Amino acid sequence: MNIQYLRQSLKARWLNYYRDNRPWLTKLAVWVDCDGQRRPSSGFIIGTLTTLEPQLMQLLPLVVDLSNNPDRIVVALGLNFNPDDELKAVEEAEEKEAMKMLPGGDPPVKDVPATHRTKLPSLIDEDCTGAGQARVQRKLPRDVEKG
User: Domain for residue 44, yes or no?
Assistant: First the structure.
């Protein structure tokens, strides 16, 4: 079991759950101040995550044997943060990443001088067989005039 992956997964699941349920969670009387962070109580976080992340259920018996202090468990799992502040930071990072996806203001493409332009065939080959193939398969107006 990759502990770092588990921490990241727990954090993502907790933040998604919190974002989806924020309207009623903020009204619930489970908020505490732990090490300077305003967050839901450790018992609430752990209880919620055991339903969201099945791997946590396998790990919790060992963790509780090492420490039965729920605040220390939440800290060890990397979840001792204010979910409102964390969501704001995640949203700002997503906006910043989305801005990177926009064109970066590359210099405009210069127009090709008239002397370097090629003449395109005046007839469009709708059969997708190429201009030369179309002339062989059916007589085009130019060919009719020739003979």
Answer: yes
Contact criterion met (CB below 8 Å) for 12 and 79: no
Q: Structural domain of residue 41, as residue ranges?
A: 3-101
Q: Could you give the CA distance from residue 27 to residue 66 in angstroms, rounded to a whole number?
A: 33
Give domain status of residue 112, yes or no.
no
**Digitized pLDDT (tens) for each residue of the chain, 147 residues in all:** 688 888 999 999 999 999 999 999 989 889 998 888 899 999 999 999 999 988 888 888 988 998 899 999 999 999 999 999 999 998 888 888 877 765 555 555 555 555 554 554 444 445 555 555 545 555 555 555 555
Residue 19 lies inside a defined structural domain of this protein: yes
**Does residue 129 fall inside a structural domain?**
no
